[in-house]
Amino acid sequence: MSVAERASREQRLANLAAAVERCRACEIGSIRRNSVFGEGDACAKLLVIGEGPGETEDQLGRPFVGRAGQLLDKMLVAIGLQRDDVFIANTVKCRPTFDDGVRLRNRPPDPVEMANCRPYLDEQIDILAPSVILCLGAPSAKSFLGPKFSITKQRGIWFEGPRGIPLIATFHPAYILRLTGGEINATKRLVWGDLKAVAAKLAETPTLRQAQGDQAKAAPGDKAKAAALGSWQSEPVGLSPSKDEGSHGSDHPPPDPQPTLFE
Fold it and tell me: Does 91 reside within a domain?
């Protein structure tokens, strides 16, 4: 990617983010504190798409910064990616809420809100032109694949996404955090398989293949990376999502760096 192309993408994203900030097409646009446009590398090969911002995201104007975001960061690190290596966005750019008489609570975005925000998401995809799209949770996947999509039956399957981009869905990190006991380990095994499928698909691109070659030359005693590879599956179980959460396989996968990752 040339310097000029990167600069052009960054400027186009900045212009689009400004348009999102001005948008008041939905009532939530006048209620929210900040729009949450998305963030990451303008030349990212991987675009991660969630459902909508939660309370902390609304406060900070950044996607996935609560506990679910911390888990997402660990999931990315497990396949050799940092948060800054990808672009993270949501199907809607403002926090969908309802007033329970005490405070504003998170809720799923309604069809009108998703339709109003869709041109912004489509333009993000056009600008970024990613190699892979990873949808987190059923609402995100349904926005591309239709209302009949089932996260339990169709996660981990490759679909043709917008612009012909390979698209795959997995469970939302907030969902994982809600699980308890054996459910959490079983689900994480499924998610780990989905993540390895993403890594394998990304490895088909020259840019990532070159990066992986550079990683192979790195010092073998990198304790920090080794710890990261196995850390995200160790989240405490039985925890409900906090107020800052939103409402919300490959034929030749890469070698499993830690076969007992979920044992």
Answer: yes
